[in-house]
Design a protein that fits this description.
The structure holds two protein chains of two kinds.
Chain A lengths: L21 H32 L4 H6 L11 H9 L2 H32 L5 H13 L6 H10 L7 H23 L5 H8 L4 H12 L1 H17 L2 H6 L8 H9 L6 H36 L1
Helix pairs in contact in A: 3-13, 4-7, 4-10, 5-7, 7-10, 8-9, 10-13, 12-13
Chain B lengths: L3 H32 L2 E2 L7 E2 L3 H8 L1 H31 L5 H11 L6 H12 L5 H8 L16 H26 L3 H9 L4 H12 L1 H14 L4 H7 L11 H11 L3 H29 L1
Antiparallel strand pairs in B: 1-2
Helix pairs in contact in B: 1-13, 3-7, 3-10, 3-12, 4-7, 5-11, 10-13, 12-13
Classes of the chains: A mainly alpha, B mainly alpha.
């Protein structure tokens, strides 16, 4: 490891007095803390290395892979931006992600409301269909979806990503919304009904604002999935003008490009939005992705 | 009392969602089972060939090799991610800033695009300029240097490391949540009875979170099918198909050599296999206790 590890460790804050000598317990907690720090640094290191390497020259990249750059080449970023046509890829990724997000949130919240607050025939069947959908491995649909979208002529349009993204994210969105809305007391709607609001009024004025925390979880999860998706973009978008960010990066992976500093700079530029989202919403991301993994 | 107004609201609330979901998730699956009966290049006429595609899938040793590689990833997940996450969860239980920082660091790779992860690890493993071989050299272990990704005998194992590195996070969060759910009275009772350390771990903590561990194992199975992106970026399924997975086998057979009928048959097989594996694992988990 390059950085010296002198992180102050948290004192053992065990309130209960357990067996064992205090000295030994203190040493043990220090050791565990040190081991954890090393583990965390090893996990973070590849990302750190990415940002440091993005500022190096190609010579430095292989002669001193662990060192800092002798000169910070900020121009690598602007070069990478041009070479990989990242401006266009950013715009594409942005539009696809935002449009899919809106569709997912609106449909997920509305269907979640219906499934949580109304009793009707076929409700179990509908829930069952969504449940079944979550068992289908996403990659097994690459070929059939390609054929389907080819037939209806939407390959190589934004819709070729927006529709499948939304379709695959909807079950998780609905289940998170239903679970959250089920916890609202009945009085919420009764009050609104007395005010004379119809179902739409209740939905927009009561359910949506109340369900905001659940929608935030759904939104963060969906954002990360859409922004990072590779396989759908790879198969459904062959027009270079429509490439999303992960696709534009994969150009560097094929081995034709040996310009390491540019590859690193391009990747650094691509991960910045997700890192920012993660830094702000850590807790929600961790809880949401875990719940998403369990359900999906 | 389902009035007309209520009924139409239910319909408007559900039909668009169901429509999109069924059209883009369920229909393709059913269709691909059907296309699997044809010899078809993606364009031009389709020739009905009965069960030939399906028979060929089952007889292709490469398909079984891909399946075996998928199972290897399941094994790596069950014996890699789960124990690592369990161990970490035991020492990261408290909610102090230090524990939170470590948890967040461990989870971080999950938010990166798999393309980025793949390229980074590609550089780490690179035989000439890779960080790993550089590190081995500087530690005087030059003889351990390898062509990590281009030697068919080690490539599959080399792929497992980033998969484990990537996926420890969610399991860690699951286990921490489960451990924090153990009522403190039980802990106190054990304390009074004189149970400490490992005794407490094996007779109280582990049995109390056993259900969560089961869920984690089922997750490893369904998650193994998702490694396509990483494989595509790092090795493309090579060298000599040593890292081929079911999904990359399907991709290569469909989009590299334009056998859409055959690719459809493979997709159908993947759906069947994964449903069997998930159902089987849940059955096993239920009957064990």
């Amino acid at each position: 490891m390059s950085a010296p590890m002198t992180r102050p460790l948290q004192p053992a804050s065990s309130s209960r007095s357990e067996a064992g000598l205090p000295r030994f317990r203190w040493l043990k907690s220090k050791l565990i803390g040190a081991a954890l720090t090393v583990y965390a640094l090893v996990t973070l290191y590849p990302l750190l290395w990415l940002f440091i390497s993005a500022l190096k020259t190609n010579e430095e990249f292989f002669s001193r892979p662990f060192g800092l750059p002798s000169h910070w080449n900020w121009s690598n970023f602007s070069r990478a931006w041009e070479v990989a046509e990242m401006g266009r890829a950013y715009v594409n990724s942005f539009f696809v992600t935002i449009l899919s997000l809106i569709l997912t949130l609106v449909l997920g919240a509305l269907s979640g409301y219906v499934l949580s607050r109304f009793q009707f025939r076929g409700k179990l069947l509908v829930m069952g269909v969504f449940m079944l959908g979550m068992l289908i491995p996403i990659h097994s649909t690459l070929v059939p979806l390609f054929i389907l979208m080819n037939k209806i002529h939407i390959l190589n349009t934004y819709a070729a990503l927006i529709m499948p993204y939304t379709a695959f994210e909807l079950p998780i969105a609905i289940f998170i919304c239903v679970a959250y809305m089920n916890s609202f007391p009945k009085e919420v709607e009764e009050a609104a009904q007395i005010d004379g609001s119809g179902y739409w009024g209740i939905f927009f004025r009561m359910m949506l604002p109340l369900a905001l925390p659940a929608l935030a979880t759904v939104g963060i999860l969906a954002f990360l999935r859409y922004w990072n998706d590779f396989s759908f973009a790879l198969v459904f978008m062959s027009d270079p003008k429509l490439k999303t960010l992960p696709l534009s990066l994969s150009v560097f992976a094929t081995g034709y490009s040996t310009d390491y500093k540019l590859t690193m700079a391009a990747m650094a530029l691509a991960v910045i939005p997700t890192i920012i989202v993660y830094l702000i919403f850590q807790e929600q991301v961790m809880k949401g992705m875990t719940a998403g993994a369990v359900k999906g | 009392m389902t009035s007309m107004r209520t009924r139409s609201f239910i319909a408007i609330g559900l039909l668009p969602t169901l429509g999109i979901f069924i059209f883009f998730v369920i229909v393709p699956i059913v269709w691909s089972a059907y296309y699997g009966f044809f010899d078809w290049k993606g364009i031009g006429p389709m020739k009905f060939i009965g069960l030939n595609n399906y028979a060929e899938v089952l007889q292709d040793p490469l398909f079984w090799k891909s399946f075996k590689n998928n199972l290897l990833i399941v094994a790596a997940s069950v014996f890699g991610q789960v124990p690592i996450a369990l161990l970490l969860s035991l020492v990261l239980l408290k909610n102090g800033w230090f524990q939170k920082f470590i948890r967040a660091s461990i989870f971080m790779p999950m938010v990166l695009s798999s393309v980025v992860v793949g390229i980074i690890w590609g550089y780490i493993y690179h035989p000439q300029i890779g960080v790993l071989n550089f590190l081995l050299d500087s530690l005087g272990l030059g003889s351990w240097k390898m062509q990590w990704l281009s030697d068919p005998s080690v490539s599959m194992y080399a792929i497992m490391v980033p998969i484990i590195w990537l996926n420890v996070g969610p399991y860690l969060v699951m286990f921490i949540a489960a451990l924090q759910n153990i009522p403190s009275e039980i802990d106190d009772a054990a304390q009074i009875d004189g149970a400490h350390g490992s005794r407490k771990l094996f007779s109280i903590k582990l049995p109390m979170i056993w259900d969560t561990i089961k869920v984690a194992v089922v997750l490893c199975i369904s998650g193994s099918l998702k490694a396509f992106d990483l494989i595509y970026v790092m090795t493309g399924g090579g060298p000599a198909h040593s890292t081929e997975l079911l999904a990359s086998y399907m991709y290569n057979n469909t989009f590299s050599i334009y056998r859409f009928g055959y690719g459809s048959a493979v997709s159908t097989m993947i759906v069947v296999i994964s449903l069997i594996m998930v159902a089987g694992s849940q059955y096993l988990m239920k009957s064990k206790k």
